[in-house]
């Protein structure tokens, strides 16, 4: 069993990653998506 502090740390980390993913994927709105770099 993990401590409450460890659980909250993981939870906040997951929420932050979810928010970043929502920004990258545009929340199902293609016009809000970040541009992809196709020609490297």
From TrEMBL:
Composition skew (Polar residues), residue ranges: 27-40
Domain of life: Bacteria
Regions of compositional bias (Basic and acidic residues) in chain numbering: 9-22
Chain spans, region Disordered: 1-40
Protein name per its UniProtKB record: DUF4023 domain-containing protein
Organism encoding this protein: Mesobacillus maritimus
């Amino acid at each position: 069993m993990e401590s409450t502090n460890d659980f909250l740390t993981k939870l906040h980390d997951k929420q932050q990653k979810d928010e970043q993913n929502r920004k990258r994927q545009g929340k199902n709105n293609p016009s809000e998506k970040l541009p992809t770099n196709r020609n490297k």
